[in-house]
Specification:
Layout lengths: L5 E3 L14 E6 L1 H5 L15 H10 L5 E8 L5 E13 L6 H13 L5 E7 L13 H21 L4 E8 L7 H5 L3 E4 L3 E5 L5 H8 L2 H13 L6 E6 L6 H14 L9 H10 L4 E8 L2 E11 L2 E9 L4 H4 L1 H15 L4 E4 L4 H6 L3 E3 L1 E7 L2 H14 L30
Parallel strand pairs: 5-6, 12-13
Antiparallel strand pairs: 1-2, 2-3, 3-4, 4-5, 6-15, 7-15, 8-13, 8-14, 9-10, 10-11, 11-12
Length: 411
Amino acid sequence: MNQVARFFPAPVSAPRAIALPARSVEVVSRLEAMRCRHWESAFGAEAKDRRYYELVEDTIHDDFDFRYFAIRDWAGEVCGVQPFFILDLDLLIGTAPRIGRLTGFIRRLWPRFMHARALMVGCAAGEGHLDGEDEVARGFNARSLASAIVQEARDLKVGLIVLKEFPAKYRQVLECFRDDGFTRIPSLPNVRLNIDYSSFEEYMIRALSGGARRKLRKKLKATKEGPLIEMSIVNDITPIVDDLYPLYLQVYDRSKQHFEKLSKSYFCCLGQRMGDKVRFFVWRQGGNIVAFGSCILHGDTIHAEYLGLDYAVALKLHLYHRTFRDLVSWGMDGGYKWFRSSSLNYDPKLHLRYRLDPTDLYVRHTSPVCNWVLSRILPWLEPTRYDKTLKQFSNYDELWASAGDGKPGPG
């Protein structure tokens, strides 16, 4: 085993009369993680359970070096497995265009300017979560990892550590990382929409303003032009992936900000390995596929993951709004209460009355001097600062809210 163990004493609340062994954190491979009895149930309470981390590692190969932290309890049993990956990170991704122009000039002279080899804790294709069977276990695992991770990163010859896109629900338990020198800044947030209505018509009447309702009706009317658009639902898109994948690439290429680029095998494996909770929605017009969406169903929530559109007709037919209407209507009919969507493309989501679903980045440099400098410039580099639409959401202040009282606070 590639073990890099760090030891630290039991919490002060433990009875002093009992001599407890130290807890430990070690770096393990995917195969070693799968041999742990705990791995089978890891992230079982989340929409993306341990199967998702496995398929991401199997299908995303863009210079990602996937590893896992195994956290052992005082009895030596693995009580938590925290996935991470190592990559070359551009610290200026998501900054304002004027800063981009300046750095572009600097990078012609200094190609590695504001690049760093980074250890990213979390998921390479989605938000991060803390492993643990309950809140107490997640707290122990977080404190264990916070105490060990800096030295682990140094041993791996990594300068920068990032906890990637952890939902705001973890702010209290992740305070231990801030105590250890990490800076918390908001990442580009996901969004959520209440769909607890009897029909899409009731949603439009009760949730949307008069102006937004009229515009949406007009766009949905435009989708009726030409041949009928029909929606179908499948668990596995492998037989038609060659038709769907180019539509995903069209959306990916039009985005101003690029993150992980998914492969054909990602979409195939998603349905094959997680078919119990994954659904693919496919829209056809005149027999031709014009749009598709991948969703994960979990509890009372539909997680809309990725969308593909044929831009030869998408803008004319307002396919974004058509797919939204069909997905939300399907969810209402199925008794789902929430519709969650990923970050970016915030303007239509603002008018459709989504609310922001904040996610955070926790960042630290292994060098104390570099970390002191980094902590002071990170608030100027964080991506939400430069998105004007985000500031129009009613709960924008939650992006910077403190862990304790929910009021806006420093990052």
